[in-house]
Structure formats: structure tokens, C-alpha cells
Design a protein that fits this description.
Radius of gyration: 40 Å
Structural class: alpha+beta
Shape: flat
Largest sheet: 7 strands, mixed
Number of helices: 8
Length: 377
Amino acid sequence: MSRHRHPQFCCAALLLAAACACAAAACLAQTSTPKTGKPAASAPSEKMTPQTRIMVIRSLQSERVFARVLFPQGDKGLKIKNGVVSPSDMVIAQQVSEFGAAAKPGDRCVITDVKITDKDIVLEINGGPKKKGKWYQHIQISGGGGASSPLPGTPSPQSLDAHGSVVTLEFDKFVPDVNGDQVRAMLNPVFDFKALTASEAYQKTLPPKIQEAIRDHKILVGMDKEMVMYSKGRPQQRIRDKDDKGEDYEEWIYGTPPEEVDFVRFKGNEVARLEVMSVDGKKVVRTDREVDLPSKEGELAEQKPASKPQAAPTLRRPGEEPEFPTTTSDHRTPRPQDPNNPNGGTVGPTNTGTTPPTGTPPINPDPGSAPHLAPAS
């Protein structure tokens, strides 16, 4: 009897084990990512705790990073919300032209301050937009007349001007409970935390074609001076001259014979001509643009309206006419013609005819007799 029941128990045990395995697989599929099988990391839905706030500030304070984008000076800076950086490139270029640049793509920056509010994480770079003075820099010495002066040896107000900027991480409701690495990932559009050198960080901000040329130490027509410097280094010689059309240019020379020599000619800030003298004496000249880099400053200048010439300063009230109006030679009032002058002369002080000049007052007027007129000069 036991011999016949044993196979049935074995089948039931196998079915039960298969069912448990399927249930476990279903649970694992619900709680894991489809690619790695690791537990899925859900976005933090809780508000940042005071302990996490302290850890994030300590993790980012005084860290050195590389800029990926252009940072304008001032307290406006850049903002990041849901991975989108604002303002636009044109607005940034306008702010840089007005206030100056705090950092360019590839520049090394220092996070000098971190502030976490209810909805924002604000990071200052390179000292921030406002200079923080020391307490002793506010001490002044007052004299008997009431005048005050700062202590000798304290810095001047001009030296306290800051040249940094800020970047703000904005959230909808509150700052979630994120750690330092997660904040770095959110700052990835504007900061490079993994680059080892400034050259590596700068190359990441360029198009792939220029990145490849810099890695191969080549020059393309259309590059700017900074790109050429990263690609070939400092030139051995620099020449400034005029071309056949009389336009100014600057030429950088790399190499010395019998090695290969590159003559890089700049028109403004871009490479306009590249001449390569190879070792075997062959000359290759390239003038066609190989990369196209739009100039934000040029686009900004095109969009600016033409400025109207300012009027000369005056003390007259608006709408008040001048007491002694003056006219230029181009807007003089035509003088009346002298009908007695056969040569068509004008009436005026130089009139030699018998008719008195227009507007000449009579001498000793007498109501009862004809007035005496002033003699002609």
C-alpha cells in the first residue's frame, strides 16, 4: 500500500514547491528593477530631516567642481527644476555682458556656501554674489567733528566686491530627504563632479566632433582660440599683420622645420585659415568652415534695438522754448530778396541799395513828419 502512495506524495510536494517558487518570483518582480534585479529605489517622499540637512551641507561645502555652463555674476544665477536649467542661453549671455562671468565652461569652481530652505537648496560658488566682511572690518574711528573713518589696514569697499554666482535647486512642495550623492546628480546639468582636469571638463561641454579633434590634437577651421589652446597648447610664435584686403589677423605658429608646422590664422576669435607644412614639403591650406559655433554675443547684439542719440543736456523745462534760438547752417531761414538789387542780393546789413534793411528802426521818429532812416553802411 505504501508503495502506491509514495509517488502521489512526491507529485504533491513538487506541485507545492512550484507554487511557492512562482509566488516568490512574482513578489521579486514587483519589488525589483527589470534589468538589475536589485531593489527598486523609489523617490523620497518625506521631508528632509535635520540630520540629513547637516550631512548634505557637510558633503557639499568647500567641494571643488568644474562648470559645465556659463555662470553670470550676481544673485540671479541659475535655477534647476525637474532637471531643466533656467534662464535661457540668450538671457545668460545678456547677463554676462552686463555683469561679467563668474565661471565659464571648464573652469574650476568652489562651492563656498550651501543653504537649505523649505523648498530650495541654494549653492554659492566662488564666494557668492555678496562679499561677507569680517566683524573687525566694520569698526570705524570717530573724531571730534563727527566724521568717522575705517581702521587703518582694513580693505577698501572696492576690494569687498564679490564676483561669484549661485545655483538654486527648486522643488514643488518641500526639499525631499535626499543625500549628498543625490544632490550631485541633480546638479549634473551645471556641475561636473567627476572630471579630473580642467581640460577633461571643458571637452565634455563641446560637440563630439570638436571633442575628438582636441583628443587627437588637431585644429579645425571655425574653432576659437580657447579650443585651439586646449588642442595644441601655447604657440611657439604669434604674428599680427594685415592680409591682402587690409583686414587685421593674428597667426599662431606651431612647430619648427624640419618638423610639421601649422600656421593657424584667426579673424577675430575664430580660425579662418589653416596652413599645414608637412615634413616632405607639401603644403595643405584649409579655409572652408569645418565646425559651426553660433556666437551668443553676436545674436544678442543683433536683437538689441538701435540706441537713439541722446540730446545735449539743458536746464530748460520740458516744452520750454529757448530764449535765443540758434540754427545751424543747414536749417537757416532764407532771407528775403531785395527787389531794388538787380544782382539778386539779400536784404541785410550788407545791402547797399536805397531801401533800408528790413527791421531797421527809424532814428528820432516824429509822428507829424516822415521818419528819418538810418544811413546805409
